[in-house]
Design a protein that fits this description.
single chain; about 85% helix; mainly alpha; about 160 residues
Length: about 160
């Protein structure tokens, strides 16, 4: 009987705490989305420009150019996240630490994309579903790695 009275209160407190935490994370997540969108545009348009300039003759050459586009996109997001999204964070924010985490995010994106294609027959017919799935999975992994590894909380700062 007493358990029935305590449980709703515990659940209410848990939900309030969770929503408060999510609200405090939104102040980082929304700018992170904008910076990531900009990084995608830098990546995509630089690849288009490089393809126009160098006219690659093979898939291998196109992939090589893609690495440059990806690197420019990573540089853009690093600058945006360092100077806007996480500007009040202590973390080193080092590009040498940031870049490998973005490569890891890209590998996670590709892995989730591939698994979705293999496990979901609808994604085989409409690959954009797998692209979206991979992007969303990598989005949250990248956000967590930036928020808690690269741009950590300042020393002595209270939790939000």
């Amino acid at each position: 009987m007493i358990f029935a009275k305590i449980l709703p209160h515990f659940f209410y407190r848990f939900c309030c705490s969770l929503f408060s935490r999510l609200r405090s994370e939104l102040r980082f997540f929304v700018p992170f989305l904008f910076v990531g969108t900009g990084g995608f545009l830098v990546d995509a348009f630089s690849l288009i420009l490089l393809i126009e300039l160098f006219q690659p003759a093979s898939v291998g050459e196109t992939l090589f150019l893609r690495c440059f586009g990806f690197s420019l996109g990573v540089l853009f997001t690093w600058l945006g996240n360092k100077h806007w999204t996480f500007r009040d964070r202590k973390g080193s924010g080092s590009l040498l630490f940031y870049y490998p985490l973005m490569v890891l995010g890209a590998l996670i994106n590709l892995s989730a994309f591939t698994l979705c294609l293999l496990w979901l027959s609808l994604a085989s017919r409409y690959p954009v579903i797998a692209v979206a799935f991979g992007t969303v999975v990598a989005l949250f992994v990248n956000f967590a790695s930036m928020r808690f590894l690269v741009f950590r909380r300042r020393t002595g700062e209270r939790r939000g």
